Amino acid sequence: MPRYRTTMHLLTNYLIDLHGDRxxxxxxxxxxxxxxxxxxxxxxxxxxxxxxxxxxxADGWRITRRxxxxxxxxxxxxxxxxx
Length: 83
Description:
The chain is mostly beta strands and 83 residues long.
């Protein structure tokens, strides 16, 4: 992802519905991307929700299906403090 100077993903609010060797989960995430602009940097911030189907296999739990929904997005100018 060369267009981003930095990225950070924060996963929050996990909900897991367990049914033996199968499960469903819902996870909220805040995703921060710092983009370097010509005049100033920008932060592209996205709120997403991951809806996963999981299965317990011989080598552990694996995601078998993932759906991602965007809850919101915003662009913010980066204002760095003076040096």
